[in-house]
Design goal:
It is a single chain. By secondary structure, the protein is mainly alpha-helical. The chain has one domain. Helices cover 79% and strands 0% of the residues. The chain is built from 3 helices and no strands. Helix 1 runs antiparallel to helix 2, helix 1 runs parallel beside helix 3 and helix 2 packs antiparallel against helix 3. The protein is elongated, with a radius of gyration of 12 Å.
């Protein structure tokens, strides 16, 4: 694990925590699940470019899918 992977993992984990808290308080399923996914996925992806692509993709999911 290099520095870039660690920093991006922290950034996406913090965004995921924000989504998780928002989804829990608003009782919204999409931000809640997206927040959990953003907090967990950096543990499984070691490639920095793939980490950023998946992280940005997950970050924009609540803007396109609303339940």
């Amino acid at each position: 694990m290099d520095t870039a992977t660690l920093i991006w993992g922290i950034v996406f984990g913090a965004l995921g925590f924000g989504y998780f808290i928002y989804g829990r308080r608003q009782k919204a399923v999409v931000p809640l699940v997206t927040g959990i996914a953003l907090m967990v996925f950096p543990y499984f992806i070691a490639n920095v470019y793939l980490l950023v692509i998946v992280g940005v993709g997950l970050t924009v999911v609540p803007y396109f899918f609303r339940l």
